[in-house]
Amino acid sequence: MASLPTDDAVRAAARRLHDGLAAAGLDRAVAAYFSEPEFAGMTFSDLGRNPPDEITADDLLAVSLLDITWRPQVVRVLLGSGRDRWSQMLAAIPQATDLWDATDDVLRCLLQDPAARAEVEALRPEAAAGATLVRILDVALWVSHGSTAQARWVREKAGMASGQRAEVAAG
């Protein structure tokens, strides 16, 4: 974490991330997400058309695989009245730059540290070879802190201690 900016909040968040990634069983829980039929795994990333600068109905379907329910007015805004606005914002996100190599104008501080990236990468199961590092981190955070029945189930299946979640979250 020595390469991180001197901002105390960023350093504290990086420490909590590091502590959370060291949770016993997290590697098994992430692997279960990508291999068990109860979870979206790579289907989330591979489903339908996925242009980086547009929200499509396929995106909403993919997110529904994560037990997200879309309210009708949100669907109308994302795919209708707000479509151009969202597309402009998405188009402004650099696609060819890894998050940790981005400028301060993009959110990226926590993954600037090579050791933090290596910790996330160490969680990558074989079934997630095509997933981005940010997707692996996303799954690890969901598995560790999700309150859904599926998140609790995968923690239990992976042998993650029930108290671990609260401990890491309080970190």
Structural class: mainly alpha
**H/E series:** HHHHHHHHHH
Alpha-carbon distance between the termini? 16 Å
Please compute the radius of gyration using only Cα atoms. Answer: 17 Å
**Count of domain modules:** 1
Largest sheet: none
DSSP helical segment count: 10
Average pLDDT works out at 82
3D shape: globular
Strand segment count: 0
Q: How much strand? A: under 5%
Low-pLDDT segments:
163-171
DSSP helix fraction: 40-55%
Task: Write a short abstract of this structure.
The protein has 171 residues and is mostly helical. Helices cover 55% and strands 0% of the residues.
Task: Write structural notes for this entry.
This protein has 171 residues and is mainly α. The protein has one domain (8-52, 93-170). It contains ten helices and no strands. Helix 2 packs across helix 8 (133-145) and helix 8 (133-145) packs across helix 9. The longest helix has 14 residues, at 8-21. Mean pLDDT is 82; it is low at 163-171.
